[in-house]
Amino acid sequence: MLFSEVRVTAVADTPVLLLREQQGERHLAVWITAAGGNAILSALEDSDEEHPSTHDLMIDALAVLDAVVEAVHITGEDEGVFSAHVVIGGTVVPARVSDAVALALRCGATILADEDLLDEVGVTGAPQTGPPGL
Fold first, then answer.
1. Residue 108 class from Cβ within 10 Å (0-12 exposed, 13-18 middle, 19+ buried)?
2. What is the CA radius of gyration of the chain?
3. Is 101 helix (H, G, I), strand (E, B) or coil?
4. pLDDT, position 7
5. What is the DSSP letter of 114?
6. What is the model's pTM?
7. What is the number of helices (H) and of strands (E) in the chain?
């Protein structure tokens, strides 16, 4: 999956993370918190070495332990809530999608989504970004 954007819609005033298939036309629209949106967007900016974010700190701490974020997997969705995990040194660690994507963008890790999930909730073309259930 490729990061597409974080968008705030006028309808819900809530950020939505948009990811799209690298080789395909499907998108995932994942509702996230404002803090999650800020963490993702800040990954696209130069980091402040004197004031690292929590995500930068985690990546630095992993490096000290000779571990790296290898991949992020978005694995499921239940009533509009997505689940994910981060693979660190071969170990699977559960994570919020926004945190997992923020880490992946900071360190260049691969973002994957299960094919079954894309079949179930992926949308082709411009994703609808109204709040879940509307």
1. exposed
2. 15
3. helix
4. 86
5. -
6. 0.87
7. 4, 8
Tens-binned pLDDT, residue by residue, of the chain (134 aa): 899 889 887 666 789 999 999 988 899 999 999 999 999 999 988 877 788 899 999 999 999 999 999 999 999 999 989 999 999 999 999 999 999 999 999 999 999 999 999 999 999 875 555 555 44
Give the helix ranges, DSSP H, for the chain. Answer: 34-42, 54-64, 97-107, 115-121
What's residue 37's pLDDT?
Answer: 93
Spatial contact of 100 and 84, defined as CB atoms under 8 Å apart: yes
CA distance 43 to 55: 9
H-helix or E-strand spanning residue 124: strand 123-124
Residues found in the chain: 134
Kindly report each contact of residues 74-81 with a partner whose C-beta sits within 8 Å and lies 24 or more positions away, as own/partner: 74/1, 74/19, 74/28, 74/30, 74/100, 74/111, 74/112, 74/113, 74/114, 74/117, 75/114, 75/117, 76/114, 76/117, 77/117, 77/120, 77/121, 79/132, 80/31, 80/132, 80/133
